Amino acid sequence: MEEVKKILYSAVQPSGCVTLGNYLGAIKNWVDLQESYNCMYCVADLHSITVRQTPADLRKRSVELLSLFLACGLDPEKNIMYFQSHVPAHAELAWILNCYTYMGELSRMTQFKDKSQRHADNINAGLFTYPVLMAADILLYQTDLVPVGVDQKQHLELARDIAARFNGIYSETFKIPEPYIAKVGAKIMSLTEPTKKMSKSDPNPKGFISVVEDADSIAKKIKSAVTDSEGSIRRGEGKEGIENLMSILSATSGESIESIESRFAGKGYGEFKAEVAEAVVECLRPIKEKYDQYMQDKAYVEKVYTEGAQHAQYLARRTLDKVYRKVGFVKR
After folding, report:
1. Is 153 a catalytic site residue?
2. Is the pLDDT of residue 242 over 70?
3. In this predicted model, what pLDDT tens digit does every residue of 252-298 receive, in sequence order?
4. Which domain holds residue 48?
5. Given 78, 175, 200, 290, which residue is catalytic?
6. Is residue 191 part of a domain?
């Protein structure tokens, strides 16, 4: 008897660009996951509008992000990929779950405090109830596993609490999701501030490399990456910049850190950075080529996200119908 695969759910906001750090730290591993799990990858456009967006840019970035999923090797025959706004059940379940979530729980969310400070001119209700929509995203699909970083751990705990509360009132309705502890990818730091993680929201574009950046731009950014005045290529205290470049070279070439350190002993930063740049360019080249092809093939990308939404809506509707019946709504 064939083992039923567990459901793994992940949602990504279409904000900013996907960086080399995002790819090496997470997305690269997703390709392996599609063989072991039933994976769902959602472009979280509903979440994006808690912060003001330029409509045309949001549409463009959403299509670009889904095209990038495909370019990185996610197979639409093995994964469900869709736009969150194309599955109305997300918003429908979020409203119901709002009624089973306490104000005190939401006010303790650290991301709400953080975003309220950064967007003080637009502290909207969506920003406050954002974690409830995130809980709805997960619980709609009877999700088993959710890959979470440190910044999202609190939100998953809330989703688990809401699910347990609802189940306690109405009997077993939602599966309680577990965090998925991903195989640790390379932790890539900023090229300008190597003590901070590489981030797509970095205001300094020299600090990050986009997965679809052109080769010349990548080479320039690596060349200007922060190092130190010592001049030796080794690990150690105060060598964060060099250690970061060594990690990048190791993750993109497959060579161990120890081998890199040994091979570059006595050599200069110029030669080292040139090799790092070449390794990054070669690692990202096939992704960029495929991405450019998908961006030209709008009909295929539309087919992927349309069929993905239809599949997602079918799965979501099964849960939502159960929830509607439990809370007492008249069957439609």
Report:
1. no
2. yes
3. 998 998 999 899 888 888 999 999 999 999 999 999 999 999 999 99
4. 7-185+297-327
5. 200
6. no
